[in-house]
Design a protein that fits this description.
- Helices cover about 75% and strands about 0% of the residues.
- The protein is extended.
- It has about 325 residues and is mostly helical.
- It has 15 helices and no strands.
- Helix 1 crosses helix 2 and helix 1 crosses helix 4.
């Protein structure tokens, strides 16, 4: 039992990339990222009939190997999750912890990465549809990309604001569709014959795409279209501004968290090997570059020691 628990703890540390398994965890992440990218490229190329006919066996071997690796990774993460810091704090049995992990977004993405292929092998379904579903494996990159995690956190934090912005855009979309319908439906019944049909023009205009396949031709319609185009510039900027602001705030919070950790770790104006190792693990988890981390460490050391360090090299004069 102890050996099983020890192996499980080692796997948890490997997946988290902590302690002595930080380098091994980093290598594992790179290997899985490479496999995901190879799969995405292969799935795209498989859509070319002449290529898939010539290299069908090679694509099939790649798919079987990939599914096997992703399945082993998924089961290993599900087994070892009870020893991860995030789930070890959950009170209750290991089954409860595993269920909590099972329904987490990252675990669902991992499951989606293998389900289409399993369905393809077990059930006679439309292969083209399953190939498209296999492209969802690209979302597994969210686990390994700190930038993607920041973006998802930004979506989560600004969820209510984004919903409000999209609600306003939906209202404007309906108003624009109704307006252009009233103005143009007698002149262009084939293009603006109903409000749902007019929504295509309104959507293309509000998103500033402007395909040009459906355009107003009456003077009033052109004026109305110009007004909607001007409104669309502000409408598109609202969610973009919210995400950009939240993304920047997430980066600032992570830098501040690292600076606070450095401040807590500094003793007698220095950092020992254990403290540096702890800060390196935190830097990796937060997705900060070594340059940013070194800058934060030098800043905190300077403040702690009364600015006795050189501002350029970080050494004592």
């Amino acid at each position: 039992m102890n050996n099983s628990q020890t192996l499980r703890q080692k796997l948890a540390c490997l997946f988290e990339g902590t302690g002595q398994y930080r380098r091994a965890g980093h290598i594992l992440d790179i290997a899985l990222i490479s496999l995901i990218m190879i799969n995405v490229v292969a799935i795209v190329i498989e859509s070319i009939p002449s290529v898939v006919e010539q290299y069908y066996n090679e694509f099939l071997v790649l798919e079987i190997v990939s599914v096997a690796i992703f399945a082993i990774e998924y089961l290993a993460r599900l087994w070892a999750c009870v020893d991860k810091t995030q789930y070890a704090a959950i009170k209750g049995s290991n089954t409860k912890r595993r269920l909590s992990y099972f329904f987490s977004p990252l675990a669902i993405v991992d499951l989606i990465a293998i389900l289409p292929s399993l369905m393809m092998f077990l059930f006679p379904l439309d292969l083209r549809f399953l190939r498209v579903l296999r492209l969802l494996r690209v979302f597994k990159l969210t686990r390994y990309s700190r930038a993607m995690q920041l973006l998802l956190k930004a979506f989560n934090d600004e969820g209510s604001s984004l919903m409000a912005a999209f609600f306003i855009m939906a209202v404007v979309l309906i108003l624009a569709s109704c307006g252009i319908y009233l103005i143009e439906h007698d002149i262009q019944p084939d293009k603006f014959g109903s409000i749902p049909a007019s929504m295509w023009w309104a959507m293309a205009t509000l998103t500033t795409v402007g395909y040009g396949d459906v355009v107003p031709i009456t003077p009033l319609g052109k004026f109305f279209g110009g007004v909607i185009t001007l409104l669309s510039m502000g409408m598109v900027a609202i969610p973009t501004g919210l995400l950009a602001s939240s993304f920047s705030e997430q980066i600032r919070k992570r830098r501040q968290l690292f600076e606070d950790a450095v401040h807590e770790q500094i003793q007698n104006g220095t950092l020992n090997d254990t403290q540096q190792e702890h800060l390196e693990e935190l830097r990796y988890k937060l997705g900060l570059s070594k340059l940013e981390a070194n800058k934060a460490i030098k800043t905190q050391l300077n403040e702690h020691n009364g600015h006795l360090f050189c501002r350029h090299c970080g050494k004592r004069p």
